[in-house]
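User: quick one
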Amino acid sequence: MTPPPKPTSPAPAAGRATVPRLATDGLTAWYGSSTGVRNVSLACHENTVTALIGPSGCGKSTLLRSLNRMHELVPGARVSGRVLLDGQDIYEPGVNPIQVRRRIGMVFQRPTPFPTMTIAENVAAGLAVGRRLPRSERDGIVERALRRAALWDEVKDRLHDSSLGLSGGQQQRLCVARTVAPEPEVILLDEPTASLDPAGTAHIEELVQELKREFTVVIVTHNLQQAARISDVTAFFYLGELVEVGQTTTMFTTPAKPQTEAYITGRFG
Amino acid sequence: MMRGRLVRQLIGSTMTGLTYGAAVLAILPLATILVMLVVKGAGSLDWNFFVRSAVAPGELGGGFANAIVGTVIVVALACVIGLPIGIGTGIFLAEFGGARFGLMVRFVADVLNGVPSIVIGIFAWTWLVKPMGHFSALAGGFALGMILVPIVARTTEEMVRLVPNSLREAALALGYQRWRTSLQVIVRTAAAGIVTGCLVAVARVAGETAPLLFTALGNQFFSTRIAGPMAAMPLQIYVYALGPYDDWHRQAWAGALVLIVLVLALSLIARAVVRAKRQHA
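Assistant: Done. Structure below.
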């Protein structure tokens, strides 16, 4: 018996670079003795939104957290296999996880503005880590990040107020601004609209379309319509394994695997 | 049927009444103390009380100036010695205190918290007063600081633990180092709570008498020399209350009133800090 061929990512649209920006190669992730992700090989390309879907507990968030070495912060968590950022393995000995996280930004399920910082300070929070910037340059970066997060017009008159005065959706866009300000290469979004109302969700979805012009975007979502609306490539996970990955339109119309079809048509999950 | 309901209602109102009674009993001592202090002490509060130091026994017109200044100095010394260690220990326990060493530190802090304050005084006497050869404000501040450490450490730990883990993850995901995450995000978020805990702890030690008995000793003259014996309000109250002169008794009452007002003021400031934090949040 030969093992079934591993699903691989579809080739990106013609004319683009064929080397993926971010790729996993036989990635397995554990929590203590239980396996969260099993032997996943997945490629994420530049200027592309890759959606990770699947029922709760299928390992999609664990996979996402393995991509910027956040997974290993949980006690007992462990990873094997490779994660290649521009061809370099981020799990190689000698690679500093701090540097990895500056190149691969992350937005979480719940908005996490730093409560003691003002709106502007929040956006600049990731900048202060690297180097000291002159005031004017810093202000410029803050404005640009807020514009890219489609939040500038709403907060430009209260940049020095507490970030806690913002609505949930605004706080989440503030977190997006904070993530893009240090100019990462990849942006990971972990169910970024799960705690938002429909208006806030729509804002974030539009934003993802903007972000993909400049970044490689990977998004975990529970919402299949959302994956269909905003992603170019969809990867379906079940019980920690990558079942199928393909162009989103193909995945939602003519999936190859019966499991994928069953999940997408709502028969389980 | 009707009878059962009546009995239930009766039991219900009896129990409610009992809890009210317990609450009144709990407040009664504090209220009585305050009223007593005001009645007996307020009359002796005059300008002299605050600006003059103790005078020779039997002479009238003395005051508590030396004791008030002494208490401020001794408590300030206690803060300098105790707060940094206490806050540092608390942050360590909350952020890195999971391992065996952390459990040990936590246990020691809890034991230290339960040590009678007079034992702390003896400790300070053995380690500072005896080697130095004389009583000193420094030894008093050291003793009070020792009492501060475990209280401040445990409240700081609790406040730091209240900060949601999602903030830590957000900072780490931005590429913050672990120590920077702890100091710039976690501790900053917990700062108001930590300040409150410190104020409450300081209010508690400001009224301590036993640890000062054989450290700061007391001093009937005005002194700001921390290497020598120094007066403190609780000590002066203790001496005057036991003394044979009516004027001393009156001053002891007044001193007790001022001391409790100071402690109350610290508690009120602590509450104000908490409220300001809530509004901010």
